[in-house]
User: Fold this.
Amino acid sequence: MSRISVRGFAVASATAVTTVGAVVGVAAGNEPASVGNTEATAADATIADIPAGAQAQVQTASLTQQADDQSTQADTAALKSAQESARKAAAETAKSKKDAADEARAKKDADARKKKELAASRSSSRDVSDLLGKSSYSVSETQAIARQMMAGDQFQCFSNIVDHESGWNYKATNAGSGAYGLVQALPGSKMSSAGSDWQTNPATQIKWGLNYMNDRYGSPCGAWSFWQANSWY
Assistant:
């Protein structure tokens, strides 16, 4: 309890006590003290000035006030804790929903990509089939076949090597070494592992060349990096 509350209680108590004394004084023939003076005196009183019985009441009231304050603080702390828990729960729920949405979107994109790749593969297969079985192939036709047989980011590296090795002539022959075809396989008969028509079918030569580059250098671009450093691969 605050000093003001104690003092207020003291005023009331002292006033009451003094009033009783005043009545007794009048009965005894003594001059009564004025109530105003009594209240002024009581206003300066401390708990030590309050009668013993009243002191107990003041102390009880103080303890009650302290208990109320502690209860209020506890309620406030509990409210803050509940609010924080609710905030965390809401954040976790929002994150879970976002993760689920991201996962669903990624799956949808992956499915769409697979469908697109499958459609492109089927289209490429048809295009390659349309080019096969000819008696001769132009450079542009041979390049079109190569584009359809490898990843788009590998074609330029493959093309760079073929440019240097054969100029995209699938019948190119090295008179000195016997190397043959687009990728100048040495000997040319190595390409029979990709097809018996290795001498006349650029698709067979491209297939063998891709397998060679992937097996030895990891990719056509890996083969091109080696070629740039050594002028052969």
